[in-house]
Design a protein that fits this description.
The protein has about 450 residues and is an alpha/beta fold. The structure holds flavin-adenine dinucleotide.
Length: about 450
């Protein structure tokens, strides 16, 4: 039996952990969040209860392996209490990083620090109650610009139009740098919000961009069947307020704020569409337009957190070059400056390729990566790892309160009771302190029962 450290307990990490634990090795999971699940817990849309509950059950099964140890509430990174070098000093045989893509793609625009301007992931973390985002100000106003045309943008729109209990939304504008044929969201996701689409304004917008997209051979009359099937499926749909509209061929250029420091105008550059590499690209013109908005959320993809301490590449943490088959997935980490392999260090899931697909894809990536790790383990000597108890003591000596599997079970009990009390499908605490206090109180309660018995 060898010992593998796994950093990050999202779907990719947990399914990788399962494979490695099933093979009989000891797995130690270090996770930034108190709870496991990553974006499956804190990204997937809140009302997708069935899916979330199903995944929680699968994750609980993974954590129940006796040869798997969980260290929750332990961020790893160059500026965290635990660094990668410190993990190495605990002598794992291999390390797998499955930390997702936690960085934020910056827009790099004048005024982007104005109040009311948020990155999509932070906003999603907020409404899914991930500490510390859950207790920060993510207030939204009446007129909201959402930048991007993918599934994450649609989730956010759905929240703004339907489910946010504090919503003041009157109008959401999706701002897209390319045209209607480049919409990337799934039909099934857009179906949740299609009743808010102002069909008249949509037709006007199609007319506005018609000639520009015709230059790359796109025919506006085909939009419905190509990327907006909701228009065909629900031809007589009446507009349900608040309204959803689109602004195509437009890229944010400048954010203007009012005296209160909050965004009150968004200046966009108008684009042309040009053919590129068999697809299309936006080409900026010198024309601009102003959008009257009080909130802006940009859903333009995720990047890696350079503070983790692994070399960062364009799509994810850098992996070994593979010139023979550049398209094949590679999981072994690599230092491009020294031109050397980081022996025994692996990366899986969104940490390997940011924003790449749904949970199923992350799971597959984790499992394929785990196969590579198992192959590596078969050929290395035992590493004389430090015991889980000693690791916990050493981390806690730095002032970090480690959350174990037993603690998670106690937290689960409290959350279940809170959900029943409130008649909810599930209840989540929205800050770490409340979770840690709930665990401590539950521990006291169980030890009181034991001593009373
Ligand atoms: C808004 C949104 C909605 C989505 N909706 C769906 C959906 O409906 N259906 C679907 O199938 N997929 C959905 N997805 C995709 C799905 O969530 C991802 O495919 C999947 O979660 C990626 O898994 P991962 O394990 O690679 O990363 P993540 O899920 O991001 O997990 C990363 C883990 O690493 C931990 N971590 C991060 N940094 C550190 C650190 N420095 N030290 C220690 N631990 C760290 C985190 O705590 C977390 O546990 C959605 C994604 C988003 C963004």
């Amino acid at each position: 039996m060898k010992t593998v450290f796994l950093v990050g307990a999202g779907p990719a990490g947990l399914f990788a952990a399962q494979k490695i634990a099933q093979a009989g090795h000891q797995v130690m999971v270090f996770n930034r969040d108190i709870k496991p699940g990553g974006l499956a817990e804190y990204g997937i849309y809140p009302v997708k209860d069935k899916m979330k509950i199903g995944l929680r059950k699968q994750f609980a099964k993974v954590l129940s392996f006796p040869n798997l140890h969980y260290f929750g509430h332990v961020p790893v990174g160059s500026e965290s209490a635990v660094t990668i070098d410190e993990l190495r000093q605990f002598h794992p045989a291999a390390m797998v990083f499955s930390v997702g893509a936690q960085g934020t793609k910056s827009l790099g625009l004048p005024g982007e620090n104005a109040k009311g301007v948020y990155s999509a992931k932070d906003f999603v973390y907020f409404y899914n109650q991930l500490p510390p985002f859950a207790s920060r100000d993510f207030s939204t106003g009446k007129r909201i610009a959402v930048i991007g045309m993918g599934n994450v943008a649609v989730d956010i729109i759905r929240w703004l139009l339907q489910d946010d209990p504090n919503r003041q939304t009157e109008e959401v504008t999706i701002v897209a740098r390319r045209g209607p044929f480049e919409a990337k969201f799934d039909e099934k996701e857009f179906a949740h919000v299609q009743m808010h689409l102002d069909r008249n304004l949509f037709q006007q917008e199609l007319e506005r961009v018609k000639d520009k997209i015709a230059t790359v051979g796109q025919d506006i009359s085909k939009v419905a069947e190509a990327t907006f099937p909701a228009l065909v499926k629900y031809p007589n749909q009446e507009l349900v307020m608040p309204r959803l509209r689109f602004r195509f061929l437009s890229s944010p250029k400048e954010i203007h704020a009012g005296a209160d420091g909050r965004i009150n105008r968004l200046l966009v550059t108008e684009n042309n569409l040009v053919a590129k590499d068999g697809g299309t690209a936006a080409k900026a013109t010198d024309q601009t337009a102003e959008l009257d908005v009080d909130t802006m959320i940009f859903a333009i993809g995720d990047v890696h957190d350079p503070k983790l301490g692994l070399p960062c590449g364009r799509d994810g943490y850098v992996t070994r070059p593979n010139p023979e088959d550049p398209k094949a997935p590679v999981f072994e980490c690599y230092d491009p400056q020294k031109n050397e392999l980081l022996t025994g260090v692996y990366v899986v899931g969104w940490a390997r390729r940011a924003s790449e697909g749904l949970v199923g894809i992350a799971r597959h990536d984790g499992e394929v990566g785990a196969e590579k790790v198992l192959h590596y383990l078969a050929n290395v000597p035992d590493s004389a790892p430090v015991s889980p108890e000693a690791i916990q003591r050493r981390i806690e000596a730095k002032g970090v309160k480690v959350v174990t599997k037993d603690d998670l079970a106690l937290l689960g009990k409290v959350e279940e009771r809170e959900a029943q009390k409130r008649d909810l499908v599930a209840f989540k605490f929205s800050d770490d302190e409340s979770m840690l206090t709930a665990i401590d109180k539950e521990k006291e309660k169980s030890s009181a029962y034991v001593s009373a018995g």
